[in-house]
Amino acid sequence: MNPACAEAAAAKKSRHKDKKEKKSKRKETAEHLGGEPATAEEEAVHKKKKKKHAEEEEKADPKRRPTVSIAVAGSVIDNAQSLELATLLAGQIARAAAVFRIDEIVVFDSSPAAENGGGAEEEEESGARFLVRILEYLETPQYLRRRLFPMHKNFKYVGLLPPLDAPHHVRKHEWSEFREGGVTLGGDRSKGTLVDVGLSQNVLVEQIVEQGKRVTVAMGTNRDLTPGK
User: Fold this and answer.
1) Using 50, 70 and 90 to split pLDDT, how confident is the model at 88?
2) Measuring CA to CA, how many Å separate 137 from each of 131, 150, 187?
3) 200-207: long-range contacts, CB 8 A cutoff, minimum separation 24
4) 214 pairs with which residues across the strands?
5) Among residues 181, 205, 202, 185, which one has the least CA distance to residue 193?
6) If DSSP codes are grouped into helix, strand and coil, which group holds residue 217?
7) Which CATH number fits domain 69-160: 3.40.1280.10, 3.40.640.10, 3.90.1170.50, 3.40.50.880?
8) Where are the alpha helices (DSSP H) in the chain?
9) For residues 127 and 49, which has the higher predicted lDDT (pLDDT)?
């Protein structure tokens, strides 16, 4: 057979096969819908409805949203030339994680010292430990930082970092179903525990919690943040 004719026959056979596959898919869609073979427009409408239904299900059950974790090597901090630059780098990592709704940051130490067990009497923090310290500080709402974090030399430049504006960083005048709080010392411990949740007054919870611990408090349905209400 002439090569040109053979090539033309192969192309025709391929086109015929494609048409047959498309027709088969339309038929399957129609069978799924319980009717006659669907046209291309009907198939497009079906796909659109299916996508919309999936989005509605995701909104109805937010717990189905998968969590996202990232891993960051502490060595990225070791390359910083000063404490200020190291702090700014840690702040950029935290800000990017907040913007892209990262649920968890795993910091691992890949330095040779960590692989050999490290030294207990190290004067300087490793890059991984420094990064964890700054990330934990930034993740904590501003009104709790002084209560939960003692003074440390590596916090010298944290004031230069912009706020994360994370969902749980609620301001005093904003109502939220849940607020992060720190357990305070005071009040009658037999009645419960006083917790600082960033309002004008501390709130009382029934559970007995150790002082200095961070807790999440359900604020109930009362949206009036006026003291005493």
Assistant:
1) very high
2) 10, 11, 28
3) 200/172, 200/225, 200/227, 201/227, 201/228
4) 182
5) 205
6) strand
7) 3.40.1280.10
8) 3-33, 40-60, 75-78, 83-99, 112-115, 127-139, 142-148
9) 127
